[in-house]
C-alpha cells in the first residue's frame, strides 16, 4: 500500500482535483467529516490529512511515501525528502511589506515580523542587511501598523490582506507553489511510487526549474 500525505486546508481542493484527474476516486473527500485516514476502494492507496509541516515529517520518516505541501513549508522545514514536482496549485509568493512611509534604504537596524524566520533571515542576509527577526504566529500584517516592527515578510496571494490593513508591497522574495515530495527509500524500492509520480506529472506537465529555483532550491 502506498501512503500519501495531503496538506489540510487551502490547497486541499486543488490537490483532490489533480488526484481525480489522475484517475483516483476521491469522492470520500466530499463527506470526510472528521476522519483523517482514508484507504482507496482497491486497498492500493492510503491518504492521510495533516497540517502542512507534518506532511514533510511523515514523508521524511517513511510513514508516508509521498506528500503534497507548499514550497514555503519546505523552505522552513528542510529535511530528507526529495522534491519531485511543482503542482502549480496554491500559487502565491513571499514578499516584504510595510506601511506606505517605510524606507527600505533607511540605515537603521530594522525589525521584521514573520511566520517564516528562515526565509526572512536568508533574504536580508543575501542583501548583507542585519535585521532583527521577530517571530509571529499569524495576523502578521498588524505588526508594522501597531509599531511592533518596521516591516513584515509574509505570504501574499491576492494582496487583499495587505490592502485592507493599509500595507504596501515593498519587494518580492520568491514564488511559492505546492510541491510533490517523496521519501527516497520509497522511490528506490517501490515501482508503484514512480508510477504514481509519472501519472501526476502527466496531469500537471513537466516543470521547468527556473534559475531562481535552481539556486534557491
Ligand atoms: N494566501 C495564502 N496564505 C497562506 N498560504 C497560502 C496562500 N495561498 C496559497 N498558500 C499555500 O497554501 C498552503 C496551505 O495553506 P494553509 O493556510 O492551509 O496552511 P497554513 O499556512 O499551514 O495555515 P494555518 O497555520 O492557518 O493552518 C501554504 O503552505 C501555501 O503554500
Ligand atoms: O494576499 P492574500 O490573498 O490576502 O493572502 C495572504 C494572507 O493569507 C495568509 O494568512 P492566513 O489566512 O493563513 O492567516 P494567518 O495570518 O493566521 O497566517 C498570509 O499569512 C496572509 O496574511
From TrEMBL:
Subunit structure: Heteromultimer composed of HisG and HisZ subunits.
Catalysed conversion reaction: 1-(5-phospho-beta-D-ribosyl)-ATP + diphosphate = 5-phospho-alpha-D-ribose 1-diphosphate + ATP
Gene that this polypeptide is encoded by: hisG
Family: Belongs to the ATP phosphoribosyltransferase family. Short subfamily.
Keywords: Amino-acid biosynthesis, ATP-binding, Cytoplasm, Glycosyltransferase, Histidine biosynthesis, Nucleotide-binding, Transferase
InterPro entries: ATP_PRibTrfase_cat, ATP_PRibTrfase_HisG, ATP_PRibTrfase_HisG_short
Pfam families for this protein: HisG
Record's protein name: ATP phosphoribosyltransferase
